Amino acid sequence: MDFCKIKAENLHFSYGKENILKGLDLEVKKNEILIIKGPNGSGKSTLIKILSGVLSADKGKIEYYINDKKIDSSEIYSYLGFCSVEQNLYEELTIEENLNFLSKLKGLKRNEKIKDYLKKADLFEERYKFYKNLSSGMRQKIKIISSVLHQPLFLFLDEPGTNLDDKGFGFLSDIIEEQKMRGICLIASNNEKEYIYGNKSVVLAK
After folding, report:
1. DSSP H or E run through 202
2. What does the pLDDT average to over 19-31?
3. Contact between 148 and 103 (Cβ < 8 Å)
4. 21: phi > 0 → left, psi -120 to 50 → alpha, else beta; which?
5. Which of 41, 62, 96, 141 has the fewest Cβ atoms within 10 angstroms?
6. How confident is the model at residue 110 (pLDDT cuts 50, 70, 90)?
């Protein structure tokens, strides 16, 4: 199984005149779950977006390694999964259509994992429902599924427990445990229920 690592050095990021990240260093390796903690406005979501390539840091560098080989940033997207509360899927497509479409975007012609994940999430019987008609909790579970369909080595989750009930948290726990066995997971959260997933953490100050 692949060894993987993320290494970030001297990350800086500002919104206007407000400094969000000020020289942050971190390193996360395979089988590690990093919890990014901090008060609202401390930059948790910003850091997740920078590490996953959604945003660019003002200064500093991020390196990704697979089997001790440094992966170019232009190639890293096929190895990572991303889930955010802000993320939205296609309202006019069904659950199944959304997941099939996203699988094809990742280069997967037929993905048997969709059926497995929908069953784990208690959504298999709902697979023909349109995304626009789903509850917030159901939407969140679909976003989580969409982030792991291609079995990423690097998984980035921004407040993944948002809108989930206890059963939904059980599903999230299964996904994170699966990822821990496969690669790396980084979770931005201020929910103490999610802190238990981590085996290391970084705390951002506002």
Report:
1. strand 200-203
2. 95
3. no
4. beta
5. 41
6. low
Q: What is the pTM of this model?
A: 0.94
Asked whether residue 201 is assigned to any structural domain, the reply reads: no
Q: How many domains does the chain have?
A: 1
Read off the amino acid at residue 104.
K
pLDDT at 1 over 70: no
Burial bucket for residue 98 (CB in 10 Å: 0-12, 13-18, 19+): buried
Output helix, strand, coil percentages for the chain, rounded to the nearest 5. 35, 30, 35
pLDDT exceeds 90 at position 176: yes
pLDDT of residue 62: 96
Phi-psi group of 103: left, alpha or beta (phi > 0 → left; psi -120 to 50 → alpha; rest → beta): alpha
Q: DSSP per residue over 91-134, as a string? A: TTSBHHHHHHHHHHHTT-SS-THHHHHHHHTT-GGGTTSBGGGS
Position 205 in a domain: no
Mean pLDDT (whole number) for 168-175: 96
